[in-house]
Design goal:
The chain is an alpha/beta fold. The protein has 17 helices and 11 strands. Helix 1 runs antiparallel to helix 2, helix 3 packs parallel to helix 7 and helix 4 crosses helix 6.
Amino acid sequence: MEVALLASVFVVAACGLVYELAAGALASYLLGDSVLQFSTVIGAYLFAMGIGSWLSRFFERQLTAHFLRIELLVALAGGTLPAILFVAHAWAPGSFRLVLYAMVLLVGMLVGLEIPLVMRILKRNVALKDLVSQVLTFDYLGALAVSVAFPLLLVPKLGLVRTGLLFGLLNAAVALWALWLFRHELRRFAAHAWACAGVLALLGAGMAAADHITTWAEDRLYQDKAIIAQSSPYQRIVVTHSPGEGQLGYRLFLNGNLQFAQRDEYRYHEALVHPAMAAFSATGASPKKVAVLGGGDGMAVREVLKYSGVESVTLVELDPAMTALFTRTPELAALNAEALRSSKVKVINTDAFTWLQGTDEVFDVIVVDFPDPTNFSVGKLFTNAFYALLDKHLAASGYAVVQTTSPLIARKSFWTVVTTMESVGLTATPYHAHVPSFGEWGFVLASRRPFRLPTALPAGLRFLSVPSLPLLFEFPQDMARVPTEVNRLSNQVLVTTYEEEWGRVAK
């Protein structure tokens, strides 16, 4: 019995952490502001666990029956938590936060009740010093196992909805186990048995319908039909499609954030790539060696390959699922003109920061196409430490260019990047372009010499022209420079500033 109950502690801890991580991931995915959402979800969950632990003192009799019932409630509430949150956001987005924190508090209180009850049941046969050490050991081991498995195995293979339901089934299995272990103590054995069967049946039905729930919710979230929806260890990748003349066509979303729309992505990618690549035309030279950091969709690489003098392109993209999708899926590969299949292109799937630290290669042009700094993990790629690394790998006459959010909506965030680049000795040249899907969008050129406007551009561009280029470098008053501080690894002020500025738009 002792071993069985300690094993249940392991499962309880694992399941509780899964529900907490799933709630935090969904809050960040559906609401943005990932740092704030994750921290408040975790805080609310731990607070609720404390309340549950305190409430356990009022359970004095029939502890095994109470444990079994609470286990079934955790299975039902925790197992269905991701599905309920998905449906709530799709059906009534205005009430999502209320549902989120109500569910987090409920599950947290129930999980907080479980461990004290197990300890009191075990107290019958185990000395206190051994009891505490054994229960806490299995508790922490369960949390460790899930913290590793959740991002690397569970979410990529099962998705959030099915992961929640799977661990709900594990909770229900613990209840079934307790039902058998304490069958001689339970007064209403048949009623508890039927309750176990009912919860298992409900969660099993949920597992069978998990894909339908996720697809329905994401179709409502993105408005267009999701033709590709998959989770990798790094992010949720969704591609939607709206066919017909004048429609947006294919759109890519990462963790719910739009990355491009087929109808106007050429504006973004031409503005991102060509001012840096074509700047060599002013001196009669040509960039030969190019690196693209991020941009796993291959669109930036497509634009780079429009320069015949380019000899090699190194694409460094963290998520192999992204480069695989945009290499092997015919419809998506067509969007980047099969750029990732070019013999000139080498794809490296790793963290760009780590890669720059480990390579001694130098490039004529480095195109930095990272997602916006919505969290500290991405925010490190906008710090002075990263730009100092970038500088080391830039040829003396080379240029780097960084996509840098909206100078209109996130004005302070935009100029923070400029200030941060300048802090490492680079010459920063900011510019902007209008992309209908995003509005006014900003970019910053970095170099060791003053930027000179290109005198020529590749043929066939749809947006940029030599006469119109100077307009990109003019900033009206509402986007003009404002005082900002340097974004460092030790403060990551950009992440906080970004969340504040874009949070005002969301409201």
